[in-house]
Amino acid sequence: MMRRLLVLALLAGCGGAAPDQDSDGNATADMVGMNMSGTGPIRVTARQAALAGVTYAVAREAPLGRTVRAVAMAVPNERGLGVVNARVSGWVERLDVNETGQFVRVGQTLFALYAPELVAAQEDLLLAHRLGDVRGAEDLRAAARRRLALWGVADEDVAAIEAGDTAWRALPIRSPFTGYVLEKHVVEGQMVRAGEPLFRTADLSRLWIEPALFESDIALVRVGQRADVTFDALPGRRFAGRVTFTAPQLDRQTRTLRVRVEVANQDLAIRPMMYGTVRIAADGPRGVIVPLTAVLPTGTRDLVFVLRNGALVPVEVVVGLRGDSTILVADGIAPGDTVVASATFLFDSESQLAAAMAGIMLNMGMGLDMGGMGVEGRDTGQRQGRQP
Length: 388
Known about the structure:
The chain contains eight helices and 20 strands. The protein is an alpha+beta fold. The strands form four sheets. It has a six-stranded antiparallel β-barrel with strand order 2-11-14-13-12-15. A four-stranded antiparallel β-sheet has the order 3-10-8-5, with no helix packed on it. A hairpin with a 7-residue loop joins β12 (226-231) and β13. The model is unreliable at 1-39 and 367-388 (pLDDT under 50).
C-alpha cells in the first residue's frame, strides 16, 4: 500500500488530483481513476499521462525494419590478384621492382631476363627480317614473333628489336597487372625457372569486407542489398557497398555464415586486414509491429497496455523478431490498437497492485467499487452512528 500511496503522491505533486478520503482519512475514491476490480485496467487522464511522461503509439501492419550488424575484416578483392612468373628459364640481370609494396601498372618493366631461348628467337626474327621477300621468310618471322609473345615479350619490344636489327642480351619482362606488390620472390642476379612465381600483386581499388552472420540474421540478408561499412581507424567516414556473395554453408566451428560486401577504395584509405563494422539494412517479415518500449517482459510473459474504452488494459502478447526500434507482435493485438509506448513499468506496477489489493479485500469479505476504492461491504451503521 505504501508503494501505491507513493505513486499517488508523485502524481499529485505533479498536478494530479488528490484522492478522496473517508472519515478516517483513508483514500477511497478514484485513486488516479484506477479500476480495482482485480483485472487490472487503469484510468489515467491526459494531464496525468503527460506529467508522468507517458506516450502512445498505434500498432500497424508493416515489414519489420532491422539493421544487421557484424564485425568484419577487409581483404583484397580476389578478382584483382595476380601472379607474375617466369615463362622461360633464365637469369635476372636487372630488377626494376625490387621492393614489396611498390605500385606497378600494366606494361611497366619488372625485370630484365637473359635466357638463351629468348636470344635464339631474336636471331630467327632478325634472320627472317634480313631475308626480306625470300620464300618462307615471312613464316619464319611470324613463328619467331609468336614465340617471343608467348614468353612474355611485349610487341613494342619486338618491334624495337626488328628496327635495331640487333638481338638484345636481356629482354624486359613487363607487368600484366596493375596493383601493389604483395610478395616478391626474386632478387637481382637470381636464376629463375619456367613457371616459378616471382611476384604477387593486388589491385586494392576495390576491397572485400567479409562479415560472419549469426543464424538468426541469415534470412534477412541477400545478394544485391546495400551495406554501409565503417572503420574505427577512419572516424567519420562511411563506405557504401553491396552484398555480392553469401556462402552456401555455415562454418562448422562458429555456426556463422560468411557474407561478402564489396566497397570502392579509390583513395586507398582502407587497408587490407583492417577491422570494420558492416551494417546491412534489411526488411524483416511483415506483421503487426509496435515500438520496442511498448512491450513489457515480466519474466514469464510479455505485456502490452492497450487503450480500450478510456482505460489502459494489460494484454498478454506473443512477440516475434525484434527490429531496430520496433518489435513484431504475433498475437494479442491488432492493427489500429493504441498502446502505451513508454512508462509501461509504471502501469504494470499499478495493475499488479490492483489485482493484489482486490484479492486481499475479497478474502476479507469486502466488495469493491469498479470506479475506485469505495468498499460496499463495510458496516454502514458505523458511519450512521457517527456524528457529522
